[in-house]
């Protein structure tokens, strides 16, 4: 983002009446050319926030069922949800908030792409004042947390499409290098990554999963703004469920398709998927599972076919078919998460073959025997 774009954002703040300011100094150990600040921001602890919402929902009569995987929906006047264990649930309205929609009658996989981003938690000397997001590249976000009365500095960034990054550990190393160079801190206590979905026009899809299915609703494509967008989705989906008017419904409806930039992005995404599909199919691995060391994962050759192998620290070998069960793209090994990631549509699988992230719903085939 250029300085001109940042100034334009500040003008939008003024137009909307957002309580903020345009400044050229920040309480950070480096200088800035300009920054847009927002006063009276609230910083949430996500787990505490969600737990409070759950407690309130239960208090008002809601029920939660864990370990109950929904796999399909029969659309009718009253939709029927089918679960993995064979149970069915009949209801007036279904709301799908499963990150990637498990029910996909409108090719959401072609209108969303998945990105991973990374965070490190570093022991700090004092609490960071405020929360920050850089406007230029590479993106860096800064915020604080407290653990056992100790201040932590959380540094995030390094976003890339799933399955299309470099050596995944390099993303953590880049954040650690930035932290050490900028703040003089090096004691990394925790690190993790997250996956987010991005729509063609960068606005979330909130509303009927398809125009012909008004009683099956979806909320997805939050583009890393889950805490705020989920609140917007909750209000909008409540109104849609109760058949109330909402002036923002048309803005977020999943059935929208704007010629620009959505059409251009649709074509670009299709080309990117095709490129990675062909690259994976043409790759020929020279290594075999027997060459894999403890703690290592890699693409291998099993009887002339591409496969994936991982050997845990105890020496147990896990070999899987690396063909994604969603649409047949070839998976890539993610060494920082020990997972098999799809560069086409963002599905992720554990080294055992279990699905970690959709749109895939079926596990990878395990390859047993003498490999």
Automatic annotation (TrEMBL):
Record keywords: 2Fe-2S, Disulfide bond, Iron, Iron-sulfur, Metal-binding
One family name in Pfam for this protein: DAO
Entry-linked PROSITE patterns: RIESKE
GO CC aspect terms: cytoplasm; membrane
Domain of life assignment: Bacteria
GO molecular function, one term: metal ion binding
Domain Rieske: 284-371
Alphabetical list of PANTHER family matching this protein: RIESKE 2FE-2S IRON-SULFUR PROTEIN YHFW-RELATED, SARCOSINE DEHYDROGENASE-RELATED
Protein name in UniProt: Glycine/D-amino acid oxidase
Gene source species: Anoxybacillus pushchinoensis
